[in-house]
Amino acid sequence: MRQVEVNCCPVVMDAVTESGIKCFHNTHILCKDTNGNCIPIDACILKAIVYDLNIISVQQVNGCMNIKGTYRVRVLYEFDNQTQVGTADEQFDFDVNIPLAKTDCIVAKCDCCEEECATATKLHVIFATVEMDTTGSCQGQCTGSPVVRIRVIVEKEFMAFKHCKAVVCLPLCPPEFCAPGEGPPAGECPDYVETTECPSWCQDNPDSPYNECTSCPPPQVTGTP
After folding, report:
1. What is the dihedral of CA 199, 205, 210, 216, to 10 degrees?
2. Where is the composition biased (Pro residues) (predicted)?
3. Is 111 helix (H, G, I), strand (E, B) or coil?
4. What are the two backbone dihedrals, phi and then psi, of residue 176, each rounded to the nearest 5 degrees?
């Protein structure tokens, strides 16, 4: 394969200078419902969600972007022989670090302050269960025996990046390689085909003055449209 020399056209624009993305699984324990009562021993989870994400701070520390914030986890469950419904809801903190890598197309950064940003690309509950509190996580909150807790695993993925005015290299290839070529001769282009979902159908004939599909019943065909 022939190598093509690509020229660079420098352009000043707002660009991402460094970026990174990482996924995290965090386990959270809920011991009480929204009324302050301990989780019933016969609780059965119906739904678990994570919501109200709040990114409090984004700051580069060495080669990573440190992201701190909070979110809430809400668990809906039934209990008392499935005759009642309860809710556990609690706020949790997070503190994660995303390694950053420089963007290849940056030629030079302008004399300006780089803004540090982060966004969540994934945030949802991937697992939730009611289990015996064998490790004492709910000690001091719930008394008696046995004590159960709700254990939830939250999957979250963050993308962190820095951006500012920068000189970006836009690749330009020689005209003989980048100029649009001629289209294929008639009849050599592939047809656009979608698989029919009908087992049979009425096929009209655009060359016929009579539309058979208006008859009752319309004639049916099978095969390839």
Report:
1. 0
2. 216-225
3. coil
4. -65, -20
Question: What backbone torsions phi and psi does residue 175 show, to the nearest 5 degrees?
Answer: -55, -35
Angle (CA) 40-46-52 rounded to 5° is 100
pLDDT tens for 173-204 read 666 655 555 555 555 555 545 566 666 666 66
Q: How far is CA 141 from CA 27, 39, 43, 44, 118, in A?
A: 19, 11, 18, 20, 35
Contact of 121 with 158, CB cutoff 8 Å? yes
- Residue 134, CA distances (Å) to 130, 141, 145, 167 in order: 12, 14, 11, 58
In terms of DSSP bridges, do strands 101-102 and 148-172 run parallel, antiparallel, or are they unpaired? Answer: unpaired
Q: For the segment 48-85, what is each residue's pLDDT rounded down to a tens digit? A: 999 999 999 988 888 888 999 999 999 999 998 888 99
17 phi and psi angles, rounded to 5 deg: -95, -30
Per domain, the residue ranges of the chain are 7-171, 195-225
